């Protein structure tokens, strides 16, 4: 589904993955950085740059972003990548938002399909005292271990909101879950977002005036919206329709573990059930969420081992940074 639909302003000859990798390589080139050196530093083959459809939607691309930022002290790398994109690449929620008639319905539509966000977490909206807050589900995975992938997602949503409103929408404030990078990097943040910035906040968030919710979208396309929703519904019915709750949990968790993480609360949200109902699902299967997630993470790591020939230690750090030793041990038993 993802690669078949484009916002009208998107370049149709580039897939999402190709556009993201091209943008990354252009940003590196502008900075005088050879991305192959960063791959070698991670003990990954430079030839991976020829496979954007495998590399970009993976934890290893997260690691590549972090490694370039670390090696070359480029703490605003994600913003430089975002500036090079042909269009924001946030997956299905971004496309559904763009095809909607106005910003309010677009955000509601995107939230309904939040599991498909190509970001470190899903975005939710909350309105209070005339101020709308779009906040990303916080996690150590995003705020402590994957600053660049996290920032890339936030920057893309910011750009998408500007694009689909024809440049009319303006943010009042941006919140970031990580510390101020300082110096010239803070200047890059200010130039990119052009509003008040707050760092070391509980979650990453975009704040704007409630009146923007009624803005008509310049990219609206009711026919394309209906067509895309029908395709998603058919896809979900085929994939999830006959599944027992544990099977649905596995498929939704696997969707998030393509390049991000997923905690217990997130999985309950994606399944549309209460936390207690999800606990009961695992009790009925004589299992637990933690064990279930470890199993899925190990399977993802084994996939990376086959496809990327990546070192086990790197995979454990990339997929489960808060529990890399436990995943390492599990991989050692199954390899």
What would you say this structure looks like, in words?
The protein is built from 17 helices and five strands. By secondary structure, it is an alpha+beta fold. The chain has a five-stranded mixed sheet, with helices on one face. Helix 6 (92-99) packs antiparallel against helix 7. The longest helix has 20 residues, at 289-308. Residues 1-12 have low confidence and may be disordered.
Q: What is the rounded Rg? A: 20 Å
**Unreliable stretches:** 1-12
Biggest sheet architecture: 5 strands, mixed
Our measurement of the CA-to-CA distance between the termini, rounded to an integer number of angstroms, reads 33 Å
**Helical coverage, percent range:** 55-70%
Q: Rough shape?
A: globular
Quick overview of this protein structure:
The chain is of the alpha+beta class.
Can you give keywords for this protein?
single chain; alpha+beta; 17 helices; 56% helix; 7% strand; disordered N terminus
Fold topology:
Blueprint: H1 16-30, H2 35-41, H3 52-55, H4 59-71, H5 77-84, H6 92-99, H7 103-112, E1 123-128, E2 131-136, H8 140-145, H9 147-164, E3 173-175, H10 183-193, E4 196-198, E5 205-209, H11 222-240, H12 245-256, H13 264-271, H14 275-284, H15 289-308, H16 312-319, H17 324-334
Parallel strand pairs: 3-4
Antiparallel strand pairs: 1-2, 2-5, 3-5
Helix pairs in contact: 1-5, 2-4, 4-16, 5-9, 6-7, 15-16, 16-17
